[in-house]
Amino acid sequence: MTLSAKRILLIIGGGIAAYKSLDLIRRLRERGALVRCVMTAAATEFVTPLSVGALTADHVFTNLFDRQDEHDVGHIRLSREADLIVVAPATADLMAKLASGLANDLASTVLLATDKKVLMAPAMNPKMWSHPATRRNHKQLEKDGILFVGPNSGEMAESGEAGAGRMAEPLEIVSAVETLLDDSAKPLAGRKIIVTSGPTHEPIDPVRYIANRSSGKQGHAIAAALARLGADVRLVSGPVTIADPTGVKTVHVERAEEMRDAVEQLLPADAAIFVAAVADWRTADASDHKIKKVAGKGPPSLKMVENPDILSTVGHHSKRPWLVVGFAAETQDVVKNAQAKLKKKGADFIVANDVSPSGTSKGGAMGGDRNRVRIVSKDGVDEWPEMDKDEVAARLAELVARKLKTISV
Ligand code: CTP
Hints:
The protein folds into two domains: 7-181, Flavin prenyltransferase-like (Rossmann fold, 3-Layer(aba) Sandwich); 192-407, Rossmann fold. It contains 14 helices and 22 strands. It has helices at residues 18-30, 49-56, 67-72, 75-80, 92-100, 106-113, 126-130, 132-143, 170-181, 217-228, 256-266, 310-315, 334-345, 389-405, and strands spanning 7-12, 34-39, 60-61, 84-90, 118-122, 147-148, 152-155, 162-166, 192-197, 202-203, 209-210, 232-237, 249-252, 271-274, 281-283, 304-306, 323-330, 349-354, 370-371, 373-377, 380-383, 387-388. The strands form six sheets. The chain has an eight-stranded mixed sheet, with helices on both faces. A six-stranded parallel sheet has the order 3-2-1-4-5-6, with helices on both faces. A two-stranded antiparallel ribbon has the order 7-8. Helix 1 crosses helix 9 (170-181) and helix 10 (217-228) crosses helix 14 (389-405). Cytidine-5'-triphosphate binds next to helix 12 and strand 17.
């Protein structure tokens, strides 16, 4: 169990996402963690201390001025007797309080009194998240060493509005907690590893672009898994709606050329893993104004040129990392094509995945949660069974760790 006997103090803020905290408690406990909860007064409007207490199997703390609670445990002990404090959902209010050092209820007092790491999972309306005040508070908290997971983009539960502000999913929060607390094995400590992830967007004009169905799930999961093993992970991500993985330094790019530049700037590195579904082509000359429909002229024809191949650039680079891993998204002749890519692109391994809709049992790897891969190297082909992308990531991170072990830091 990855979190065996780890003590987590979970502060539940007042937001509709509080219902997800119930699942979060369950997931943390499944992994062996001891979870104790503080709820703000607003949180108790969304979920009851009774259900929270039933899941933690512990007393739930709600009131700074409760004589019994203060006598039994006290807010200082509450914050010190934890290995990690998790705030989920972290509301705009809780962020603002901590950013300015306010302590007028139990949750904010615990946060100010702690000497432990604090991980916040923000959840709020997209307008609140993008408000200059929240932007300021977020920056300040990051400066103060507060860690963040999420928020994700997507539709809000209450308003149907879209944008960043949705709380990270319980399993994403668990994975962030594991990154911070699972110190059982850190075989990649001291190793710098570059990962590319997600699609690229190639502009046609200021409002239109060419894209693909990559979600970034597999690449982000690999970055998180490498970080869990102690690596200094630099993720170069194309446009995705999922959250930056915790404990990973993420650079955001749009186009293939930007991705190549970002990757080259990060060299040298011990290893590089290219998971991004980079667009093979871009328009030769993207228009700097919106292309209009002109009556009688018909649709415009787009002239395409080839994008740089980032994997191949790095595979043949003067600063080539010791280990270079590529992916091969194929719909037919999976192994044969992967073997050809291995040679052509200068990789040590190609992780070949069948992205045809029948490639996995649940509607295909592209955008889905499952993946079935084969590891192709000059030594042969290793077939892995179909599994969750998180599991593929964990196994791949272990493979990278085994390979890097043979060279000294
Ligand atoms: N890749 C890259 N830069 C590109 C295209 C691909 O870095 N411009 C990387 C991908 O991240 C992946 C590998 O190359 O690791 C293979 O990508 P894939 O799309 O399967 O191969 P292609 O070279 O594009 O070949 P094809 O589309 O013809 O199968």
